[in-house]
Amino acid sequence: MIGIEMSKSYEFEGNVKEIMEMQTFPSGFCKREFVVTDTDDRYPQDIKFSAIKNNCALLDSIRKGDTVRVTFSLRGNLYNGRYYTDLQMYKIEKMDVDGSTAEPIPQPADDFPVDDISDDDMPF
Question: Phi and psi of 120, rounded to 5°?
Fold first, then answer.
């Protein structure tokens, strides 16, 4: 399920299907992608999210099979005549079976607002 939490912010709940290895680029930029499966739909969807910079560390306490609530923003850019869309996670919470938050995941010390993410930081 996707719902609006606040301006330019969305939430998605489901089970973690996969967590990829962190990618680090020569500029120092880092990115880590993960997939969450929507379990409330008749035809479950696998949705890929990305964590960038300091938010990559938020995935360290998440495991495959965990039920999570992902708070993210929609990002898009044009590169070589093609449009790309990215769902950038900036908060993730483990959920209990009853849908309540199981445990808070600490945010990075120098967390930045969603609007401070520049397209110049994107590796493509």
Answer: -65, -20
